[in-house]
Write a structure and sequence with these properties.
30% of the residues lie in helices and 18% in strands. The protein is α+β, with helices and mostly antiparallel strands.
Length: 79
């Protein structure tokens, strides 16, 4: 027997777990491991502001000037 746990936006959740006040804010997670560093995950507030996955940080900031950018942290994900 086995179980599956689905954790949407796990990488973003790992980064924000020590900053819960940012959960309601427009936050984008930049994934530096992509061929061209781009947004991999984002909060609902960021999506509502017109930001989407695949945008570069500068493209996302042009759509939402209050956007908070965070970088993916493998260490936080492992913790």
């Amino acid at each position: 027997m086995f179980a599956v746990i689905y954790l949407p936006n796990f990488c973003l959740q790992a980064v924000l777990r020590h900053e819960p006040e940012l959960n309601a804010e427009p936050v984008a997670l930049i994934d530096p491991d992509l061929p061209k560093p781009a947004i991999g995950q984002l909060t609902a507030a960021a999506r509502a502001s017109g930001v989407s996955e695949g945008l570069t940080a500068s493209q996302a900031m042009a759509r939402c000037e209050k956007l908070v950018s965070k970088t993916r942290s493998r260490r936080e994900e492992q913790t």
